[in-house]
UniProtKB/TrEMBL annotation:
SUPFAM superfamilies: NAD(P)-binding Rossmann-fold domains. Pfam families: NmrA (PF05368). Its EC number is 1.6.5.2. InterPro entries: NAD(P)-bd_dom_sf, NmrA-like, NmrA-type_oxidoreductase. Keywords: Oxidoreductase. This is SDR family oxidoreductase. One of its GO terms (molecular function) is NAD(P)H dehydrogenase (quinone) activity. Residues 4-251 form the NmrA-like domain.
Amino acid sequence: MKYTITGATGHLGSIVTQDMIKLVGANSVRAAVHTPAKATHLTEQGVEVVKTDYLDIETMTASFKNTDVLIYIPSKTYDVLQRVTEFENTLVAMKKANVTEIVFVSFYADQEKNPFTMSAYYGYVPRRLAGSGLKYTVIKNSLYADPLVPYLPELIERGHLIYPVGQAALSFIAQDDSAEAIANLAVKPELRHNGQVYTVTQQQNYTMAELGKIMTEVTGKPIGYAPVSVAEFAAIYAAEGDGAELGSMYQAGAMGLMDLVTTDFKKITGHDPESMNDFLAAHYQK
């Protein structure tokens, strides 16, 4: 079996790649990356590294040759049309390369009334796959817990979380857990390729007051909750290039659209995901 992973040098893709190496061996893993020079560490591990470009069908077709299962991790752009184009190109390249199975890595903010910038894209892909004739499964991530760790110094300075979600709760998953679930889906045919849709979350969701309490326990510093408006949040983080997009995501959270909790992670892996308390305690450096 040959497993091809797109975005294999990204944050999530890197972890998925290492998990796949552990599960099936480096010889069965192919890393399809935009810049092979950034993947020399994978070559040294025995992984086949190939160049691919979501906007170049011929390059994608070549990179997908002899693939049994494609693990598709989307690009990071917030341009909905480009994301759709990239995925349509992927479907064409899969057909040309005779690839019939795909694990699509998605996000749970995909409801029809969800105002998140990328909601339309995440809603479109499962419907597109349903009519594609491919064997497929979709795994939706909840919010990553990982960005909370580097955010903690700012929160300590502020003294409170500012996410504009009101009293609504949010669900999270650690990237390590997400990657483990993705890799397990790829290698367990009984769990994939029949149109299954999974959403991986921790065992509970958190209001911001509850999250602040956990952060206070972990850091030893008081962190409460004083939400700003969606517009204020977007303005605060505009300089980072994604303030408006993040604002739209938390607007969805305030509508109660991002609080889903499932047991899908345990169904896939056989064990519970890491809790928020344990995750923050393990990664926060005082």
